[in-house]
Design goal:
This protein is mostly helical. It has one domain. Helices cover 85% and strands 0% of the residues. The protein contains four helices and no strands. It has helices at 3-48, 51-92, 101-106, 115-143. It is elongated and about 75 Å long. It starts with a helix and ends with a helix.
């Protein structure tokens, strides 16, 4: 591969990465906004003892968390494609690997949190909260 093609590929893969990483961030922000609204609704419904709606809201929260988790997996895959292409074009240009951003960020570092871990923790907490809310709503509804 000639240098001009590799340079163009490096630029395009960087833009691909930037676009999909930004999209992933925006998607998570949307998840947080929707989740905050649903949690507020759940709090109100619990206080007002509107149990059928409480169970439905809990189910909605769990479903939302599961869907966003799957969408995040897809987004992470697309980001990974950009990283792989970037590394390939970086090497084709003969640039030293110790300065390649995707290779450097992939190195394991002690006590380092990654977005992937934090996002999945948020999805899991919301999923469990939704399931628990649904169970509470159904149990209280059967006792009423």
């Amino acid at each position: 591969m000639d240098k001009d093609t590799a340079r163009t590929g490096l630029e395009m893969s960087a833009k691909w990465f930037e676009y999909h990483a930004g999209q992933r961030q925006d998607m998570f922000k949307t998840f947080l906004i929707i989740t905050a609204g649903l949690c507020s609704i759940i709090g109100y419904l619990l206080q007002a003892k509107l149990l059928p709606l409480l169970a439905l809201s809990g189910l909605s929260l769990s479903t939302l968390a599961a869907l966003f988790w799957k969408i995040d997996d897809r987004s992470r895959h697309l980001v990974g494609i950009g990283e792989t292409a970037y590394q390939s074009f970086w090497s084709a240009l003969g640039l030293p690997n110790e300065f390649c951003p995707p290779l450097q960020s992939a190195k394991k570092q002690p006590r380092m949190l990654r977005f992937k871990t934090l996002y999945r923790a948020a999805y899991l907490v919301c999923f469990i909260t939704g399931v628990a809310t649904t169970i509470v709503g159904v149990v209280l509804l059967t006792k009423a």
